[in-house]
Design goal:
The protein is α+β, with helices and mostly antiparallel strands and 424 residues long. It has three domains: 170 residues, Triger factor/SurA peptide-binding fold (Orthogonal Bundle), CATH 1.10.4030; 100 residues, Chitinase A, domain 3, CATH 3.10.50.40; 97 residues, Chitinase A, domain 3 (Roll), CATH 3.10.50. It contains 18 helices and eleven strands. The strands form three sheets. The chain has a four-stranded antiparallel beta sheet, with helices on one face. Strands 4-7-6-5 form a four-stranded antiparallel beta sheet, sandwiched between helices. Strand 5 and strand 6 form a beta hairpin. The protein starts with a helix and ends with a helix.
């Protein structure tokens, strides 16, 4: 996705003021709420941009019905007093912003792109926040009135399988893959260096430096682009060591270095709101030293040579692999579709012949030796292999029917006037 497309997506979240001023008119009423021509145009553009459906299938009638359904659900949620935890909204908002900001070199570059379009980051955040909250409320209502009431029997699943068996794709050709893995984890030397670095940053803060600026400069967390801001969250959201320290701080207080599985953190409490807090943090990861990496690489090269000399893959996996299940499975990782192996692992794995092993592969901060343990030819899926997916398919079909019925009931409960229909 290009930066220009991102900006366009931002724009379609905002009201179309020009259209509203020039040609706006009411085209539907739902309870005490109205839907205008500009809202309809805006929604059509959003659907086109998102490629939700083929352009030729997008009609004013279909999109207006969707907007009416949204208004019905909004009114029902208000009457039911449905609320969503702000921390849940902020968590998803932060994830969305991280995805967007990862496409820019800095927050300043993103702000400049927005400024050129007459927008601000706060506007974008607020519009995303509104959309996220609306989606959560809809999900909560549907779970309450539809999903929670759906029961799928074994007979229904079995019948669905028999009726649609010919429609299912074949189970693709698979490779049975074995693996020996060594994580490039850090030792005491690396931990000492990380602690030294975070301590020096703490000294800068003690001398009056801005926490947000130092977070943007030093932090090795995606939140660095937001000055280390993690937004609001409640207890049970973060890892224990981080959370215990964060909730013990006073407003404006900065913690001493806190060690978690991610590295060393400095935490600053920015605000409290009921049972939630908002913090900034600076993360320095504990990365292995060159010496530690070299030792692991040498070990894996030795293991590779032993395999070449004919030693048992299973026995060496049990002895050396860092995968938790290696001992039970003797290095067996599972069956994987041939057409996805290159994406999931590497081209070297895909090109293995049965019984062959790869060279030592450095990937995702770990070292791997993979083995082709055998090929399973394309075939039909057994019922037992897809019973869970079949249950979801049956449940989704039932949910779609019940959703239509529920919307029809809401239309009896809440006044709806569709002026497009009247004008036909």
């Amino acid at each position: 996705m290009t930066k220009k497309i991102i900006v366009i997506i931002f724009i379609i979240f905002l009201p179309i003021f020009t259209i509203a001023q020039v040609m706006d008119r009411i085209i539907a009423k739902v309870g005490d709420k109205i839907i205008t021509q500009s809202e309809l145009i805006q929604e059509i553009e959003k659907i086109k941009m998102a490629n939700i459906m083929p352009t030729e299938a997008i009609t004013q009638e279909k999109v207006l019905n969707k907007l009416i359904e949204d208004k019905l659900i909004e009114i029902k949620a208000n009457r039911e007093g449905i609320t969503i935890d702000d921390a849940k909204i902020e968590q998803q908002l932060n994830q969305a912003l991280d995805n967007i900001m990862s496409q820019f070199s800095s927050t300043a570059e993103l702000n400049e792109a927005l400024r050129q379009e007459g927008l601000t980051l706060e506007q974008v955040k607020e519009n995303y926040r509104t959309e996220i909250k609306k989606n959560f409320i809809k999900e909560k209502l549907i779970n309450t009135y539809i999903i929670s009431k759906i029961v799928v029997s074994d007979d229904e699943i079995s019948d669905y399988y028999k009726e649609h068996k010919d429609d299912f794709p074949a189970r693709p050709e698979m490779m049975k893959i074995g693996v020996i893995k060594k994580d490039l984890t850090a030792g005491k030397e690396a931990e000492s260096k990380a602690l030294e670095k975070i301590t020096k940053i703490r000294d800068e803060l003690n001398n009056g430096a801005s926490f947000a600026k130092l977070a943007e400069k030093y932090s090795e967390c995606p939140s660095a682009k937001q000055g280390g801001d993690l937004g609001y969250f409640g207890k049970g959201t973060m890892v224990k060591q981080f959370e215990d320290t964060a909730f013990s701080l006073k407003l404006g207080e900065i913690s001493e270095p806190v060690k978690t599985e991610f590295g060393y953190h400095l935490i600053k409490l920015e605000d409290r709101k009921d049972d939630q807090i908002r913090v900034r943090h600076i993360l320095i990861k504990i990365s292995p030293s060159e010496k530690e990496i070299e030792e692991k690489e040498n070990l894996m090269q030795t293991i590779h040579q032993r395999l070449e000399n004919g030693e048992s893959f299973a026995e060496l996996a049990i002895q050396y692999s860092d995968i938790d299940s290696a001992q039970a499975n003797k290095g067996y990782l599972g069956e994987f579709p041939m057409d996805r192996i290159e994406t999931l692992f590497s081209p070297e794995v895909k090109n293995l012949k049965q019984g062959e092993i790869t060279n030592v592969i450095n990937m995702d901060n770990s070292l791997y030796i993979f083995k082709n343990l055998g090929i399973v030819k394309e075939r039909d899926y057994d019922y037992s292999e897809i019973s869970n997916q079949l249950e979801e398919l049956v449940k989704n079909e039932k949910a779609a029917d019940k959703y239509e019925d529920w919307i029809a009931e809401l239309k009896k409960e809440i006044y709806v006037e569709n002026r497009l229909e009247h004008n036909k």
